[in-house]
Amino acid sequence: MLSKGNKLYPISEKYNDLLNTLCSVGEPINPSEITQEIFTEMSLIRYYGWVYGKNINRMKRHTTAELFQDLIAHKLKRAFVGYENVKLVLEAKGNKIKIKSKNKTPHVDIAIKKEDSLVALIEVKTNIGWSRPKNEENWVEMQIDLKILK
Fold first, then answer.
1. pTM of the entire structure?
2. Pairwise CA distance, residues 22 & 25, whole Å
């Protein structure tokens, strides 16, 4: 096992920190704030990916689909603080669901269980469209727009 703060592998340490943050519940969140937090987090992640791509001359951006799914689960866990026996399961196999045309059992992106009974199934989509903010001025405008929505 590598010790915390291993200077030989700083990138994997940062990745470990990210995963630990996603696993932790942290501060409770008001359910009405989930969408804005997810949008802002993902927008910044995509922006940082764009900056990285420019700096390293990467022509194709990293995929963030699984990270988006985990981020949603993290925010939902924070919203469920105080609820008893609520559990989130990611990539759960939907044993009672069959896709007849493909003869296979799908995986559900996020399943919400209460006392071991399924309460909700969430299928996550990652495309936020073509009109993403493209520069710092656009990001500021987006933040102002989001504040108006409050």
1. 0.71
2. 8
